[in-house]
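Hi C.,

You asked whether I'd gotten around to modeling the 607-residue construct. I have! Everything is below, sequence then structure, no commentary in between.
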Amino acid sequence: MKNIFRIFKYIKGYKREVSLNIVFNLLYVFASLFSFVIVIPFVSVLFGIIKAPAICPEFTFNKDIIIDYFAWNLNHLSLEYGLYPCLAVLSGVYLVFAFLSALFRYLGMYFLAPIRNGVIKDLRNDIYHKITVLPLSFFSNKRKGDLLSRLSSDLSDIEISVISSLQMMIKDPIMVLIFLIALIIASPKLVVFIFIILPLVAILIRKIGASLNRNSEKGQKQIGTVISTVEETLGGIRIINAYNAEHLIRKKFEGQNNVYTKLMNKILRRRDLSSPLTEIFAILALVIIVLFGGMMVINGEIHPGILIGFVLLFARIIAPMQSVTTAYYNLKKAEAAAQRLYEILDAPERIIEKPNAIETILFEEKIEYKNIFFSYIEEEGKEKMVLNDINLEIEKGQTIAIVGKSGAGKSTLIDLLPRFQDALEGDITIDGISIKDFNINSLRHIIGVVTQESILFNDTIFGNIAFGINASLKDVQKAAKAANAHSFIEKLPKGYYTNIGDRGLNISGGERQRICIARAILKDPAILLLDEATSALDTESERLVQESLETIMKGRTTLVVAHRLSTILNSDKIIVMDNGEIAEEGTHQSLLNQGGIYSKLIALQTL
């Protein structure tokens, strides 16, 4: 339950609402208590269960004196005005207390609403913020659908199971406690029977709760698998259709969905068992109280009115006791969801900024990779080495091409420079200063990135090019012209204010890539990282994109991950990666003359 209690810490930001909620719940409980208490003396006198004393006793806080005091006054009023007018007055008083009880209950829930929604809002904000600052290695072992499940299904489960239980967890325990105090005052002997029954209930609840927690954890993981399958289907629907694999993917989904449904049936059946169990034990306790209480009345140990009041009050707390157990089961069910959320919130931020980090970066000389080692943990828990003792110097203004087989570590090498990930050993410096000494935002401000996948957002072309930059339409148009994108943008229905849809799918691949290049041009970075920016394009689109790249690369220090010969020939230096190491280094011609890995790669490409 520790993760649930951690969620409750978010309530600290709503102290005013919490205080008002508690106050109105207390008022509700007292109003409910008094609405029952005032009925007891009247019923006792009305049916002759209690005889009024001859003289009105002086009022004191003693249960026997209170009964005699009300009995004398009610008897006096009934003799003077009759029983019916007394009943009418008492009914009016009861209605007043019932109205106050309902009003206070509503006000308690009124001030609970901002707590409930605010805590979920704060939790959602924290999770989203955490996702944006975690290193890329965190996501390499996580399925996108599973992460989406945590932000949707798990968070929804927290809202339903935990936050919606706040009213029960605040109001009902207070009600049970205060009513129990009233019962103890009425008859300590009869309360003993209640405390004999309660431990039995607690033991059963604990056993069922443990089972509920285990199945809930399995259920949360399973719904993550289901959502992952949906996400994969949406992303690969073209391939599914092309290979007539609809029945296979449908069978896979239905199997996963059936497993989830069975788990949810177990969870709901166990959770729904809480209320009937509590009710059965409460009624058992009530029967025992009536039997033993009746004997005590016969033996003259308590007033009959005390027994009536005791039975009424105990019957009144059965429902709150059921709510308390239901709330407990809800918390146990939500523990698995909370654990999955805190796997994200507690994930180590390996990209940590130093205090008083350097804000201004004057890149004037060179970038150096010094004895760089990098590895990541695979799903099986095994460590996989990606970069092994990398040493590299890049002079300002140089274009460095990085080539090699897939999995050689090319993309990881350039990801370390903007600190998308941090090396496990070694250091990267700019003009002799470690990049870890720089402010992360300042470091990334001087670096532009264009990747193989055109990463665009469901926004206008203007919004995508000016993403993260305060730019005018004129500035955006200038960048688009430099990227060979202005002509096709002008032909769109709304020009630069045309929405390009999810991931920019309303335009072609070459057009998407040119928008990404325009975004990098507008940023005007000193360092440019190109990760296979033309590999997924047709010949015509590649030519236009290559022209755009040549424009943006002028006067900039550029690291190019590339396979195609057209992006390698004019590089100042070519780095050949193999199994996480720099196997060869030199110009195009010098590497060809060596007859090594590079020459073989070029030969394969020119066949």
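If it helps when you're writing up: The longest strand covers residues 383-395.

Thanks,
B.
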